[in-house]
Amino acid sequence: MSKRFTAGAVATAAVLALTVTGLSVPAGAAPSSSRTFTVVAEDGTTADAAVAAIKAAGGTVVSRTDDVGMFQVTSDRADFAAKAIASPALIGAAEQKAIGRKPKLDRVEQENLLAAAAQKGTAAKRVKKMDPLDEKLWGLDMIRADQARKIEPGDRRVTVGVLDTGLDASNPDIAPNFNWALSRNFAPDIVDIDGACEVPSCLDAVGTDDGGHGTHVGGTIGAAANGFGLSGVAPNVSLVELKGGQDSGYFFLDPVVQSLVHAGRSGLDVVNMSFYVDPWLYNCTANPADSPEDQAEQRAIIKAMKRALNFAHNRGVTLVGALGNNHEDLGAPRTDTSSPDYGADPYPREIDNESCWDLPAEGPNVIGVSAVGPSGKKSDYSNYGTEQISVAAPGGWFRDGFGTDTYRADANMILSAYPKKVLQEEGSVDEQGNILPEFAESVFKECKANGECGYYTYLQGTSMAAPHASGVAALIVSRYGKVERRGGFGLNPDVVEQHLYRTAAEHACPEPRLQQYRNEGRDETYDAYCAGGLNFNGFYGYGIVDAYAAVKTPLKPNARP
After folding, report:
1. 554: cis peptide before it, omega within 30°?
2. Residue 549, Cα to own-chain centre: how many angstroms?
C-alpha cells in the first residue's frame, strides 16, 4: 500500500528531506553529465505519485525510503529543479554543488587556540574527583553530576544518540559505553569539503570521528567513570553514533533526517543535536532576498525537519538541541550574512521571525539549551531569548572571569574526549602521539599500562552546553524509566522534558538586564537583554540543569511513564 505524505506527527507520518548534497552517489565518483538531487513531496502526495512526478520532471529515482518520503534522484536535464518545483506533487529539489572551500578553525568553539598565549589566564584549582581529569570539569560540579551519580550513574539500557560528526570508539572513555549494534553512519565523505575519502565507499566505519566534534559531545554526555581520563554526566548509559555531520563540520538535511528516523525506529531514549542544518542559518518560507529555487529549498527543509523531529519524538525520543553561537535573541534575529554557507556565496538576508526558523533548535519538541561560563553568566556567544530557550547548561566561556587571574583561561571552557587523528591534523599532537609543548594547557593525554591512550581537549559553545542537558535527560530516563510492552526500556519524552525543567536550578536575570560585554572585548552586537522572571527568562530558561535534583526529586504523581 502506498503511503500518503501528511504533515501530521503520528508515527507513520512521512518525514521528507531536501538537501544540497546528493549523498546517494559516492562523493568520490567520477564526473558525469548526470546530476544528483534530493526531492521532497508535498503534503497529501502518495509515494507513487511523487515518483511519477519526479519521472515527469526528467529525473530517475535511484533510492527511496517510503517510510519517510525521501527520494534520491539523478537527472541530466538542466531544468529538472525548476520542473520539480512547478509540480504540485513536489515541494522542491536541490543538487549537490561544489563549495571550493573548507571550514577553518571554529572561531567560537576553539577561541582559545586563536588567542595569544601571553594573554591567557590561569586555571582555578578544583577538588580532585573520581577520574584523573575530573578536577578540570567545572561543568559537572555546576550541575552536581558528581553527586547525582551516587544515586543514579545511568542505566546501560538507556541509549543516547549523538547526532554529530561521529564517535571515536577507540578512546578508552568512549569504548566501554559505545553501542555498536545501533550506531550508524549516514553521512558519506564529500571530497570537496571533507578531503580525500579514507575508504573506497567514502562511508567511514562506525566508531570513527574525523571531525572531533561528536566525540567531544559524546564524552560530556557519557564518558565512562572508570578511573581513567574523565567522566561524563551519565557515565553508565549507552552512546549511539548517529553520524549525520560531515568531517568538515557541515550538517546537511539528508543525513540528519536519516539519523532522526533511525533514532525513532530504534527506540533511542535521547538524541543530542549540537548543530544547525546547512546551508541556511535561518530557513525562510519566502524571503525576498532568495531566488524561487532557494525559497523552495528552504520550505522543504522546514517541512522535512519538523516531520523528522515529530517522528522521533512520537517514537519516544527526547530531543535536545544547542541554541547556537550567533549571540542573538532567536525571537528577534539580526540580518543573516552567513547564508548560504555551501554551494554559493552568502549574501545579506533580513530575517522575518514569523516565517524563518533556525533548525533544529527552533523545531518542534526540541529542548533548547543556552551556554553559561564558570561564573554562571551567559556566555557572550550564546543565543538566547524567551521564544526558544528551555534551559541553560555549562558551555564554557574563554573570556569569563574578567578582572581575575582566570580571565581568558583554557580551563573556562569544556574539556572532553577528542580523536588523536584530529589533534594531529590541527597541529597540537605530533606523529608519535606526543602533545606539543605550546598546547600543554589545552590538550591532555592519558594512557593505560597496556599503551592504550585517550586524548582530551577544550572546546566551548552551545554545542558543549546541550550534551550536559542530554546527560541529565539520560539520568532521568535511567532513574524513572520503565520496561515497555515490547521489551524495551524508556520514559515518555514529555515527562523527561517536564522533569528536566522542574528540577533545573532557577537563575534570575542579571542586573542590569541589558548585559554588555565591553570588558571582554565585544562590541554592541553582543549586547543582550534578559527578559522574564526568576521561574523563566531569556538567558536561563527554566534554570541551569541540575543532575542531582533530577535524580533525587520524584516524578510528579500524574506523570506518564
Report:
1. no
2. 25
Identify the sign of the CA torsion 191, 195, 196, 199: negative
270, 470 contact by CB (below 8 A): yes
**Is residue 27 pLDDT above 80, yes or no?**
no
How would you write 378-416 as a 3-class SS string?
A: ECCCCCECCCCCCEEEECCCCCCCCCCCCCCCHHHCEEE
Mention every residue, 6+ apart, whose C-beta is less than 8 A from residue 195: 102, 189, 247, 248
CA–CA distance, 407 with 424 (Å, rounded to integer): 28
Q: Is the pLDDT of residue 92 over 90?
A: no
What are the start-end ranges of the E strands in 187-273?
Answer: 238-243, 270-273
| Pair 90, 39: CB distance under 8 Å | yes
In 285-340, at which residue ranges do the beta strands (DSSP E only) sit? 318-322
Global pTM reads 0.90
**pLDDT tens per residue across span 412-467:** 999 999 999 999 999 999 999 999 999 999 999 999 999 999 999 999 999 999 99
Q: Which of 88-97, 180-189, 275-284, 376-385 has the lowest mean pLDDT?
A: 88-97
User: What's the rounded mean pLDDT across residues 480-492?
Assistant: 88
Task: Copy the grid coordinates of residue 240.
Answer: 549511539
Q: What is the DSSP code string of 135-166? A: GG-HHHHHTTHHHHHHH----TT-EEEEEES-
Q: Which helix (H) or strand (E) holds 74?
A: strand 70-75
Backbone angles phi, psi at 378, to 5 degrees: -60, 130
